[in-house]
Design a protein that fits this description.
Length: 406
């Protein structure tokens, strides 16, 4: 089966919890796992106990390349990745097939198995692909449950109408796997920034001492690249100005590479006047050597003294343009996070800033997750720890909302 390019791009590197409930259509989940993996999504399968009667967990484990979990009270699985962790890890929870019973349990907020508990905890969007007998689907109780879940923001994909495993004909078949993939991918295309031009800086800079040595920092580029992917998914024309990093470029993003703060400054000052939104995620060095030796400096004395001078403050310069874009900074702090971030908003004349702690190895520099407080004039919002891609999606939503009102 061919997967459409836009589906691959939207699902690439996403973290998907695939929930499988007890239905004869459970065997089709194997194909869903395979397609998600082909999109480069990371998949963790959670099965209800009933689902394990329809398809062997081992099959899904082999296809997803991750252990399959089904027991809420299993201390081993909870140790590996407990239900809270799993729920927070997910960028999306896709339940395919979703049985009538599982939909009913979700509607009343039960948490009597692992999958239901994950659904109750997660902040990620939930997609349901129902599959059941046509009378069960048409029953007013199921219809009511589905509308309750839709009102809560869950997305229904299907069901399809057709021949059923029980020999009947009608609505209730699991919709085609391609349609489920399309609906899930669609979640990552918000169109909030259609026709807007966004410039994002990411990664570290390198400030050369001599031909082979430089000063730099641990920024991996992951946060900035995730924001660029989310901006593109929101419909923005996105330019990424990246320091030296080892992260693949998001699809449909124009990327320009730089090394030093001065190179980044030159490109930003050329590009920022034409953009609507400027997001400065790069960990730009604050100091650079006053001169770079053209040759490798020979070791001689026991000590060596370097004179460092300030680098240009790129973000402040962009915000000081005669007609500045909506300007968003990041603040990497180890203490007094909000106070220091508010000071940066004022000093650099920003519209918004995202402050993250760089004390903790699990968030901030080089990690897959992050946690930020987004601050603007007169308000702030805490965004708890989640994957950088999920966080980026949320941040782009907020940035789009504030951009529209300022
Ligand atoms: O790349 P990752 O590994 O994913 O890590 C992400 C991150 C931790 C680097 C990122 O989330 C982050 O915090 N980026 C900002 C790092 C930083 O330089 O913070 P700062 O508080 O020193 O700078 C404040 C702001 O001014 C930042 O938006 C920075 O881009 C900008 N700045 C700083 C110095 C300078 N000379 N020019 C600038 O534009």
């Amino acid at each position: 089966m061919n997967i459409a390019l836009h589906v691959k791009e939207r699902l690439g590197l996403r973290r998907v919890v695939l929930g499988i409930a007890g239905s004869i259509a459970a065997y089709k989940a194997a194909e869903i796992v395979r397609m998600l993996r082909e999109c480069d999504a990371e998949v963790r399968v959670v099965m209800t106990p009933a689902a394990t009667a329809f398809i062997a967990p081992l099959t899904l484990q082999a296809l997803s390349n991750n252990p399959v979990q089904s027991d809420l009270l299993d201390p081993h699985s909870e140790q590996a990745m407990g239900h809270i962790e799993l729920a927070r890890w997910a960028d999306v929870v896709l339940i395919a097939p979703a049985s009538a019973d599982f939909i009913a349990r979700l509607a009343i907020g039960r948490s009597n198995d692992l999958l239901a508990a994950v659904c109750l905890v997660t902040q990620a969007p939930i997609v349901l692909a129902p599959a059941m007998n046509q009378s069960m689907w048409s029953h007013p109780a199921t219809q009511k449950n589905c509308s309750v879940l839709q009102q809560r923001g869950m997305l229904l994909s299907g069901p399809a109408i057709g021949d059923q495993a029980c020999g009947e004909y009608g609505p209730g078949r699991l919709i085609e796997v391609e349609a489920i993939m399309e609906a899930t991918a669609q979640l990552f295309a918000t169109r909030l920034l259609t026709n807007k031009r966004v410039v994002i800086t990411a990664g570290p800079t390198r400030e050369y001492i001599d031909a082979v040595r430089y000063l730099s920092n641990r920024s991996s580029g992951k946060m900035g690249f995730a924001l660029a992917a989310a901006a593109v998914d929101a419909g923005a024309n996105t330019l990424l100005i990246a320091g030296p990093v080892d992260v693949p470029s998001p699809a449909r993003v124009t990327r320009l590479n730089v090394e030093s703060a001065r190179e980044m400054e030159a490109l930003c000052m050329q590009q920022a006047p034409q953009c609507d939104i400027f997001i400065s995620v790069a960990a730009v060095a604050d100091y650079m050597p006053d001169k770079k030796s053209a040759h490798k400096i020979k070791k001689s004395d026991a000590q060596m003294t370097l004179t460092l001078v300030r680098t240009p403050d790129i973000l402040a310069q962009v915000a000081a343009l005669p007609q500045p874009p909506f300007t968003v900074g990041f603040a990497a702090e180890t203490e007094n996070l909000e106070k220091n971030a508010r000071q940066k908003i004022a000093d650099k004349k920003l519209n918004m800033i995202a402050v993250n702690s760089v004390n903790n190895d699990e968030i901030g520099f080089a990690s897959d997750d992050n946690e930020v407080t987004l601050l603007w004039h007169g308000g702030q919002e805490f965004m708890p720890r989640t994957s950088k891609s999920q966080l980026a999606r949320l941040m782009i939503e907020r940035i789009a909302q504030h951009y529209g009102t300022e």
